[in-house]
Amino acid sequence: MKSSTMKMLSFSAFLMLSVVFMSNAQKRASPAKTAKGTINGAEITVNYSSPSVKGRTIFGDLVPLGKVWRAGANEATIFETSKDITVEGEKLPAGKYSFFIIPGESSSTFIFNKQTGQWGTKYDESKDALRVTVNSGQTSTLTESLTYTVMDDGLEVKWEYGRAKASIK
Fold first, then answer.
1. What gap in Å lies between CA 157 and CA 150, rounded to an integer?
2. Nearest 5 degrees, angle CA 141-CA 143-CA 149?
3. Alpha-carbon distance 169 to 127, whole Å?
4. CA angle 16-21-22, nearest 5°?
5. DSSP character for 148?
6. Residues 4, 10, 11, 16: is their CA dihedral positive or negative?
7. Each residue's pLDDT tens digit, 24-57
């Protein structure tokens, strides 16, 4: 083979390995996910990073009970509604909000905060648009990755053995 052909083959192999390496390096431990649905004509979207349990104890250990939790990983979780809605009977205007949770054993607090675009641990209580108390508890089955589900009647969040759901109209 000619020297120029060998150089081209070597360069091509180098490029392919670089692409594979870079794509693997960009995968996050907590991948970005989106939950979408419609409730009474309002388009609801939740954008979040979904961490996994990985054998850890989540609620009461990694995520302390009674303290504000970023409700995901990485950037702040974003809750968006295209129309005014009521969450647990309280009005929430159409818009985009950072979403936080104060987890508890039998009830939790869902927080819709007007500040968006921040890293998940940057929380300013003075910018809360709405706080509501929701029922929470344990499930009998493990949910390995944090999961949000927009249902016909509300928003459910599950992770590990924990579950909380807000009624939305």
1. 9
2. 115
3. 23
4. 100
5. E
6. positive
7. 445 778 999 999 999 999 999 999 999 999 999 9
C-beta separation of 97 from 129 below 8 A: yes
pLDDT at 36: 98
pLDDT in tens, 122-137: 999 999 999 999 999 9
Residue owning tokens 């996994």: 52
Tokens read off for 1: 């083979």
Paired tokens of 91: 């009005």
Strands (E), the chain: 32-39, 42-49, 77-81, 85-87, 90-92, 95-102, 107-113, 128-151, 154-167
Contact of 58 with 92, CB cutoff 8 Å:
no
